[in-house]
Every structure is written in C-alpha cells, then in structure tokens.
Amino acid sequence: MAMAGEPEPAPREEPAPFLGAFLTETRILYPLKVDAWEALGEHRFELAELGASVRYQDPASEDRWMDAYFYPAGMLPPERLRKDVQQTVDEISGLAGRADGYERIAMGALKPVSVTLGKGRDKRSLEAYSVSMQLQRKGKSYHSAMVMLVSDMYYIKTRMTVAEDQLRQERVRSLLEKSTVELVRALRVSNTGRCWNPAPIVAATAPLATGKPDLVGSANVGGVVSVLAYADRIEALDPKSPQARVLQLMAGTATGRIGPGCVPAEDMNPAVPEGMRELRFEYSAPKEDTDGNSPRLRGRRTGVG
C-alpha cells in the first residue's frame, strides 16, 4: 500500500493467454500432393488446441502412408523444441507393452535436420529433428520415423510407418525427412490476434535524426532519410509511403511486436490456390480457471512460448 501523498503503484499486467488472445485464429493452407504422396483425408481433434492431422498415401503402395500433424506452439525459446521432441519420443516409448499398442518399441537417437525456406534476403532455416523407430505389433515388425519442427508458431510433426520388409530403416527416415521439407515449403500459415501488434506510423518533419541509440532501422528515398523505426513508433515524412509500411513490418518482426506468420485480420481470407486445401482454427478466450492450454501444450504459454 502506498504512503499518504505517494502515487498508487500501477497494477501488474498479466500476460495475455496464448490461445484466445495472443492467437485468436489460424489459417493453414496445405498441399494436396507432396512428392508421390496424395492427401487422403484430414482429422480435427475435439479440442481446437490439439489441432488436426492430414493423412497422405502413396497411390503405388496403398499400405504406405505419411501422417502430418499441426497444432499451436507459440514462440519457443532456444532448446525448447529439442526438449519437446524428446518428450514426444518418451511418450511413444511409453506405449510399449500396452494391450492396444505395440509389444516392442525401440527408439533411435534424435538427428538434427535443417529446413531451408525462401531465397535471397528472405532465406531462413528452421530447426527440426528426426528419429527412427522399430516397432512390433501382433508379431509383425515395422520400420517407422518421425520428424518434428516449428514453423510460424505451429508444431509440424510427421510420421511414417512401413512393414519391415518394405524399406530399410534409414530409407524410411530419409524419405520422411525429404517429404517433410517439401510439405513445410508448400505450407502457408497465417495467424491473427495480439501477435499482430505493429508499432504505429506517425508523421514526422525533416530532417530526421538517425543517431538515437534506440533506433531499430531507417529507410531512404532519393538519398534523404524518410523513415525511422523505433520499438514503439515509426516516424515517416510520408506515413502512407511503401517505405513506412515495409519498415513497420521489419521493425515489428525484429522487436517481437509481430509474431511469425501473423497478419492483420483483413488478410485472412484470400482464395485457396489450386492444389491446396484450407484448415482453419478459431480459439476462444479461456475460462477463468484455465490459461487456455491443454495438457498437449505442456504448461502455461504466452506469445513467447
């Protein structure tokens, strides 16, 4: 409590719930064909935060398929993905010996995989991990593999399982890695919510000073500094110029005001391109006694994972 004459302390601002506030809607466009795989169908889980899965099948081998899972992750700190992959591996291992599962599960070591997206200045690499598995069910042996990564604040997990006599173990993993890379390159993920919070563009007068220590970036037009970006504002000689808009997006991404894959709500309804299909998720505000997460998301989350 403040003493007489002292100002009351500002109330502590609680972090926004991850689902229902930081993320309110997600649109995923996925390809109907990935390499030789063709989309066979999709499954939405009962809880929205558990996402959905898509099954791809090889038309030349009806008993060979790849499952892709999509569910929200947030902005993960370093090493979080590896820990989540390891926990997923441990969960799969724990299924061994169950009456409705596999009699035996042997897991290989995690293998780092790099997924390169874009070209030129837009080129970036995503961290990913793959793992091989040997399974036995009802006396029959299988080779299996899993790949897991995060793109645009969504976990993407793929699984492939074939009979042991169909493909060698390493071939299963390499095939899944290649197909997963092609899948991720084709995906289009758009998110709305508080993850889209760019700094406002405000009008400024020339000349603009570039020597301030909190400057995030600047843009020139005809050799004259026309836009300055700070964490809390974008100063522009012409607030409607394309340079101001571009710097607003670049600064928002650099300062965390714009999350990966986040767009304004008005950009969420473009036409679905030929050869693609849409998955859409809407997240409601959480109940008072929850934080908007399910056990699948492993703990309380805000925009920073």
Describe the structure.
This protein has 305 residues and is an alpha+beta fold. It is 15% helix and 38% strand. The chain has 3 helices and 16 strands. The protein has helices at residues 80-93, 169-186, 242-255, and strands spanning 25-31, 33-34, 37-44, 52-58, 61-72, 104-107, 111-117, 124-137, 140-151, 154-163, 188-192, 201-203, 215-221, 224-230, 234-236, 276-282. The longest helix is centred in the middle third of the chain and has 18 residues, at 169-186.
Helix fraction? Answer: 10-25%
Biggest beta-sheet profile: 9 strands, antiparallel
Give the number of DSSP strands: 16
- The chain-level structural class is alpha+beta
Average residue pLDDT = 87
| Poorly predicted tracts of residues | 291-296, 298-305
Strand content: 35-45%
Order of helices and strands: EEEEEHEEEEEHEEEEEHE
Please compute the radius of gyration using only Cα atoms: 23 Å
Briefly characterize the structure.
The protein is 15% helix and 38% strand. It is built from 3 helices and 16 strands.
Q: Which short descriptors sum up this protein?
A:
four-stranded mixed β-sheet; disordered C terminus; alpha+beta; nine-stranded antiparallel β-sheet; elongated; 305 residues
Write the layout of secondary structure elements.
Blueprint (H helix, E strand, L loop, with lengths): L24 E7 L1 E2 L2 E8 L7 E7 L2 E12 L7 H14 L10 E4 L3 E7 L6 E14 L2 E12 L2 E10 L5 H18 L1 E5 L8 E3 L11 E7 L2 E7 L3 E3 L5 H14 L20 E7 L23
